[in-house]
Design goal:
Helix content is about 65%, strand content about 0%. By secondary structure, it is mainly α. The chain is elongated, with a radius of gyration of 16 Å.
Amino acid sequence: MGDGRDADPTVNAAAWSLTSERVVKKPEGLDLDHLLDLIERDMKDAPSISPFAPIWITEMSKRLDH
């Protein structure tokens, strides 16, 4: 298993998508501790709030008003 990084963010996203599907469907044989370490490492540099949060909050507020 690699370090989970690639120069192309699309490749990274695809790799994590496939990995998360595998974790759900067939986790046997995966080093889950290593995967958690990779997630923790990568999340240190991630923004705390999704760029979509303001859009989502606005939409949910509209729905509550109805």
